[in-house]
């Protein structure tokens, strides 16, 4: 930007800055370049005596892709008031800004103007409207625009697919995906990302498997989604396979990809591999996201001191990487796992003092978890009572777990009842309070809670586990016999149980023998 300003200064001193060709080029480069400064661009724009539609489009486009897209719409309205007529390039930039703002009423107004001006047949504008409606959650209108387009291209299909994926309608997204005349890397990536965001992690990996066989080479966006799916499933072998794929295909190891690898390895239990990937990144090229991934991973694995030491390393190295709210969440989680109450209070109060930050409900829930795990239940209860925000189910759930672990059933009952008030359709809340009553042998009250759950029509969702064998994931629920090899599985399981019984009996006899000798 400093070099650009030198060029601009030359134009000003030469008297060329008022000439349209030079002023227009200056504005375009300042507004559209990745290193541009929109405040500076707008000052250039205001100095142009009679801006052309090219100038208006440049400034609208710049604002539409900036951190704050709102001025894009304001400038568009100002342009209309000046009597400047929009062209076929103006509306896509405005639609992009509206999509990022998720302001449906503005989107409808833009679409109305497009229709009045007879531009609705323009494919570029149509694609932008599909994307805009999809981003605003108005998928029916997006489909209407799509269906009425006389000619579609890959952008049209991808925009429709992405819209369904964003709205969580994976069935419709798959219908569009399977109907596409041709699929590019954007199509495959959108479908995979939609599955991940919809919680269909196994499906995401299955689609990526198809992509490897019949689709194009994956890109960074694809691999970030795939690694996220592996992380959620705990599919370590598949995660390693994805890592090898990236190496084999010579994909550039961007910081986003390295962060996803750290997160995947940490969540799949391979913390040493996560650390190895993290250490391969030059410290002056890191950002807060990759530090959060490794600190959070260490905390989850119980390596509490290592997590705190890494945070100190991040602070003292002068990297220009400032902790954010997620960093403090990771640190509080580490303190909860390690029972470090004083350190937790230090981090919580540091967050309160940091300019531009304030504790969110997740931070309060973590602090309650720290106190509850350590048995400081009265302190945790008072902390909740004095909070500036209303207690959330996650906060009360942490307190309930602490009460159960430390056998404070009197407090557990009060907390359990409050949780049912907050989430009357959550099966775990009824079961939690039923377990409280069972803990003090109040069997009638325990049964009453189960009956209340049935009367309300709340169904208990069965918990399940994944087991990865040779890169293949197998899903199990309790007493599950649906697996094709269930007979062999139960035979091995029974053998293990019998061996455990023999080992326990042997240990009992051994200790009993020692007792006799003593």
Structural class: mainly alpha
Total beta strands: 2
Q: Biggest sheet: strands, sense, closure?
A: 2 strands, antiparallel
- Mean pLDDT reading: 86
Task: Bin the strand percentage.
Answer: under 5%
| Low-pLDDT runs | 510-518
| Number of separate helices | 28
What would your notes on this structure say?
β1 and β2 (472-477) form a beta hairpin. This protein has a two-stranded antiparallel ribbon with strand order 1-2. α5 packs across α6 (90-101), α14 (220-233) runs antiparallel to α15 and α16 packs antiparallel against α17. The protein is mostly helical and 518 residues long. 70% of the residues lie in helices and 2% in strands. The N and C termini lie far apart (83 Å).
Summarize it:
With 518 residues, this protein is an all-alpha fold. 70% of the residues lie in helices and 2% in strands.
What brief labels describe this structure?
two-stranded antiparallel sheet; single chain; disordered C terminus; 518 residues; mainly alpha; 70% helix
SSE map:
Layout: H1 2-13, H2 20-32, H3 38-46, H4 53-64, H5 70-81, H6 90-101, H7 104-116, H8 123-135, H9 139-148, H10 154-166, H11 170-179, H12 185-197, H13 201-214, H14 220-233, H15 236-248, H16 255-267, H17 271-279, H18 288-300, H19 304-316, H20 325-338, H21 341-353, H22 361-373, H23 377-385, H24 393-405, H25 409-422, H26 427-439, H27 443-455, E1 464-469, E2 472-477, H28 486-517
Antiparallel strand pairs: 1-2
Helix pairs in contact: 2-3, 2-4, 3-4, 4-5, 4-6, 5-6, 6-7, 6-8, 7-8, 8-9, 8-10, 9-10, 10-11, 10-12, 11-12, 12-13, 12-14, 13-14, 14-15, 14-16, 16-17, 16-18, 17-18, 18-19, 18-20, 19-20, 20-21, 20-22, 21-22, 22-23, 22-24, 23-24, 24-25, 25-26, 26-27
């Amino acid at each position: 930007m400093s070099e650009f300003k030198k060029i601009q200064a030359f134009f000003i001193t030469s008297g060329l800055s008022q000439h349209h060709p030079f002023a227009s080029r200056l504005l375009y480069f300042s507004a559209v370049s990745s290193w541009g400064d929109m405040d500076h661009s707008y000052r250039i724009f205001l100095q142009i005596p009679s801006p052309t539609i090219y100038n208006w489009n440049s400034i609208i486009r710049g604002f539409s892709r900036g951190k704050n897209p709102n001025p894009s719409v304001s400038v568009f309205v100002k342009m209309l008031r000046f009597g400047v007529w929009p062209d076929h390039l103006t509306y896509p930039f405005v639609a992009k800004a509206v999509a990022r703002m998720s302001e449906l009423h503005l989107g409808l107004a833009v679409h109305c103007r497009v229709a009045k001006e007879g531009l609705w047949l323009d494919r570029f504008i149509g694609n932008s409207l599909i994307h805009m409606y999809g981003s605003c959650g108005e998928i029916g209108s997006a489909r209407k625009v799509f269906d009425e387009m006389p000619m579609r291209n890959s952008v049209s299909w991808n925009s429709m697919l992405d819209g369904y994926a964003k709205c969580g309608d994976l069935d419709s997204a798959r219908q569009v995906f399977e109907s596409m005349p041709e699929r590019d890397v954007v199509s495959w990536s959108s479908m995979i990302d939609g599955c991940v965001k919809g919680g269909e992690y196994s499906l995401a990996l299955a689609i990526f498997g198809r992509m490897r066989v019949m689709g194009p080479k994956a890109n960074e966006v694809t691999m970030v989604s795939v690694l996220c799916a592996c992380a959620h499933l705990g599919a370590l072998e598949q995660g390693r396979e994805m890592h090898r794929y990236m190496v084999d295909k010579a994909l550039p190891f961007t910081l986003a990809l390295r962060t996803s690898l750290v997160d995947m390895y940490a969540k799949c239990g391979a913390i040493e591999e996560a650390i190895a990937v993290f250490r391969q990144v030059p410290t002056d090229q890191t950002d807060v996201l990759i530090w959060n991934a490794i600190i959070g991973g260490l905390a989850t694995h119980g390596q509490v001191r290592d997590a705190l030491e890494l945070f100190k390393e991040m602070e003292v190295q002068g990297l220009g990487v400032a902790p954010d709210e997620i960093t403090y969440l990771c640190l509080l989680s580490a303190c909860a796992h390690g029972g470090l109450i004083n350190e937790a209070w230090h981090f919580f109060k540091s967050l309160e003092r940091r300019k531009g930050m304030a504790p969110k409900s997740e931070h309060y829930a973590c602090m309650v978890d720290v106190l509850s795990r350590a048995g400081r239940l009265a302190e945790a209860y008072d902390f909740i009572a004095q909070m500036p925000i209303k207690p959330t189910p996650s906060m009360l759930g942490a307190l309930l777990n602490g009460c159960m672990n430390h056998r404070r059933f009197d407090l557990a009952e009060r907390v359990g009842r409050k949780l049912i008030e907050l989430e009357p359709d959550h099966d775990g809340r009824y079961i939690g309070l039923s377990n409280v009553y069972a803990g003090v042998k109040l069997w009638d009250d325990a049964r009453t809670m189960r009956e209340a759950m049935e009367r309300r029509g709340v169904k208990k969702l069965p918990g399940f586990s994944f087991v990865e064998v040779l890169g293949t994931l197998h899903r199990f629920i309790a007493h599950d016999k649906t697996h094709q090899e269930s007979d062999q599985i139960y035979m091995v399981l029974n053998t293990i149980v019998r061996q455990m019984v023999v080992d326990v009996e042997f240990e009992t006899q051994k200790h009993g023998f020692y007792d006799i000798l003593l």
